[in-house]
Predict the structure.
Amino acid sequence: MGLKMFIGLDIGGTYLKGAAITAEGEVKQRLHEPIAKLHADDLLSQLEAAVRSLDGPDRNAVGVGVPGIVDSQSRVRVSPNIPSLNGIPVGSELGRRLGRRVFLENDANAAALAEAWLGAGRGANSVLLLTLGTGIGGGVVLGGRIWTGVSGYAGEIGHIHVDPDGVRCGCGSWGCLETIAGAPGWQRRAEDALKVRESLLRGQHLEPKVIVEAARQGDAVALDVVDGAARALGTGIAAALLLLNVDRVVIAGGVAAAGDFLLDRIVGETRQRVFGNVFADCTFRLAELGADTGVIGAARVAMVQGSPSP
Ligand SMILES: [Zn+2]
């Protein structure tokens, strides 16, 4: 009898999710609760209690996904959404409290690993995942393992420079992909257009979902905003493809709910910017795993990191 079940925790900006997951990826037990994020010690205690509530005699290692950059020492370098974790060695501290192996990973990296394993990246050798939301996260999985880079920053595709004349980004640079294709970028560009053009969008809440719906109805301003986001995404993805030559690109996150309407435009913009063979050997898919992505990815991190490198 082996230790067949892995525990995955997904630290979000508002909720902590957890699950016990089999080595085949079946979710057996779930946990979902508001997160105690103001003080690191409270959050560590919450994580410890969550693992204990999901624990059992056949449980193996624990994986934890966090919205921030994670270094090779399982320490959170920086988490814009949960600043109380900045500099905290969450992995080793939780491991010490629990007396078992704990593996910490950036949440977008964990999502990429989950999709590569069981979702839209199945069967691919290498996967680039983008999460489209308020920000734009990314993860790279090469041969079944996350490529973190030497400092944990690999896959930060949202900060690839796509517009030399662009606006300032929260990262300190300007013209980053995120400034155009992140949700605030959609809003800003729609507001700018509404100063001089008429549109169905006037008086509406300018979130991507609303803008996509107006674009589907043929609204010219909304179409320009969608096309601008797709162009920026295609530019960023093309840069990543030329560097990595992966065989699968997965689009995830709330904005991906726009479905093929957005995906087809992203694919078209990417095609114009890469070698024909690089494009031909890559397929583009929408993410498949939904609400369980974070916990499945975190558990998979524990499975993969806990195994010896090939
Ligand atoms: Zn940036």
